Amino acid sequence: MKVLRSLDFWSSFLILLFTVMFAAWVYVNWFSLSFFVGDLFFVHWVGLAATFFVGVMVPVYYVLKRKSPKKFKLLLRIHVFGNLLSFLLISVHFAQNTGRLSGFPSKLGDGLVLFLVLSIIVATGMLVRFGAKMKFVRYIKFVHSYAVVLFYFVVAFHVLSFFI
Ligand code: HEM
Ligand code: HEM
To answer: What is the pLDDT of residue 28?
Structure first.
């Protein structure tokens, strides 16, 4: 299979593997990352920065891709690796919070839904990018692109819920 010879595929795979392992470690050792920077937990800043990157870079990618089709390969690489690294950081935020709140499952809500939506976006992104000649890639790409609307909606809810 051609995809197994792709450096981008193996790099993405390794980032995801590291994400799962590191998030599992953070979940168990959540107290190690329970320190404040300013008014917020360090991991909240990490989640904020990564979510900001994803939220801003999606429309930037959308516009640049159409404006400079010759740079598509570079833009797609930035899209894939920028978002995978953001997913890694968001997973750290997610794992620390779910570890910290593991005795209080009723306190988990929109953050959990948000992580699920993002995981679907990442999984479908992997399939669209590396799924070779999959029959249903058109539908998977549709899910990948339009789940973003849900992502923005739940992010807004997650952030606003701390102020309400
Ligand atoms: C995709 C991005 C994000 C995911 C998956 C996520 C996930 C979570 C989860 C699972 C929790 C535990 C409580 C709950 O389920 O609601 C949580 C709590 C929290 N998140 Fe996020 N989050 C994200 C982005 C953000 C952003 C952008 C901020 C902005 C500051 C943020 C700030 C917080 C804060 C302050 C808490 C603690 C709430 C508390 O202790 O009551 N998160 N997050
Ligand atoms: C995690 C946050 C991500 C978001 C919010 C996101 C969002 C999007 C959106 C909205 C599009 C449609 C762009 C357009 O129509 O011009 C798209 C396309 C695409 N995404 Fe993602 N994506 C994310 C992560 C990823 C990841 C991790 C991968 C691969 C591992 C990926 C691979 C792709 C591919 C292959 C396309 C189609 C290429 C194209 O025609 O532009 N995405 N993404």
So the answer is: 98
